[in-house]
Amino acid sequence: MELKIKYPFLDLKAANERYMSDLCVAATGVINSGRYIGGPEVDELNCQLAAMCQAPHAIGVSNGLDALRLIFEAYKVLGRISEGDEVIVPANTFIATVLSLTHTGLKPVLVDPDEMTMNLSAESIAKAISPRVKAIVLVHLFGRVCWDEKIARIIRDNDLIAVEDAAQAIGARSITDGLYSSRQAGAICHAGAFSFYPTKNIGALGDAGAVVTHDSELAAAVSALANYGGDRRYHNLYVGFNCRLDPIQAAMLRVKLRDTDEANARRFARAVAYNRHILHPAIIKPLIPSSPTQCVWHQYVVRIKAELRDDFREYMFANGVETDIHYPTPPHQQPCYEHLPHGPLPISEQLASESVSLPIGDPISEIDAREIAEIINKFNGQ
Ligand SMILES: *Cc1c(COP(=O)(O)O)cnc(C)c1O
């Protein structure tokens, strides 16, 4: 007999149900327009994103990995970073962050995160600084903004290029005052990359991504590099790529981006419900930040001792709750990075062996989150 899963980890069709009629109208508009590359849908999306991020430049591109890669390629063609330069990156990030560096000939310096926030901390960054380090990628992992006064000071004092991997943090906001005022994730530092992969907080109906920046030279280089390296038609400044955003995905995103704050608020409410109702002593819950927009809960990740994890996930599944792991293997333990130099990374390895992600996306309700928490509380493991 097939087991009926009451709470799938993420049902994308169900999650998109609330947008369905607008998505159909928008898709039909693109089909009827005859513009299938670039054009007004992409231009409008870029304007909408720039306005949302309060940044002067937003460039829709093919996906999140390409957004990161284009940023580093652009710094290279502008002569601000060189092949072989070192770049600090959290060791527990999704592999795409690291791929963007090795693809552009930069050397990742893998740094263990803070165990509780799962993001880089000023202390961990400070230990990794050296004259060879020219840049840092701040990953807002699971939607939590990685930014504070101390990190800002390290970046400024060491004159680092600071790039945000905001793939999981659309709509999040920093709370730092002083050196930098509160800013939208992706527009806090010099340049930010977004992914609109369908499972992200705001997902397209296929691959999509964007670069956001305050730097007009960088924006021009990214736009050119994404379109064969041409600054105008049949004039190629750089050895570029084809990393353009499809207008049909731009149209889908224009519908969904309007709901960003509400969609993130729904995630926040579920995270709060989980934190309130999960009471099992074997489960370590994530921190709820003091300001709700500081984390947009791309994932709600709890931890359980490695020896109990498989039993816990099987128990949850048997009780109708599908869970996932973000991420079971850190980049430095992947076969492709067998020869990547790195120091000991005990926290990243521990997080990989203990993490479990609970359903957090639409259409899970706060009541569902409470029910899932009650199932967790009846788990028979210590
Ligand atoms: C999803 C993701 C990416 C890559 O985005 P794609 O659109 O899948 O290429 C990069 N970094 C992080 C942290 C991500 O979660």
Give your account of this protein's structure.
This protein is α/β, with parallel strands linked by helices. The protein contains 13 helices and 11 strands. It has helices spanning about 10-15, 20-35, 40-55, 65-75, 95-105, 120-130, 150-155, 215-225, 245-255, 260-275, 305-320, 345-355, 365-375; strands at about 55-60, 85-90, 105-110, 135-140, 160-165, 190-195, 210-215, 230, 235, 300-305, 355-360. The strands form 3 sheets. A 7-stranded mixed sheet has the order 1-7-6-5-4-2-3, sandwiched between helices. α4 (about 65-75) packs across α8. The longest helix has 18 residues, at about 260-275. The radius of gyration is 21 Å and the shape is globular. The model has no long low-confidence stretch (mean pLDDT about 95). Pyridoxal-5'-phosphate binds near residues 96, 139, 165, 168 and 207.
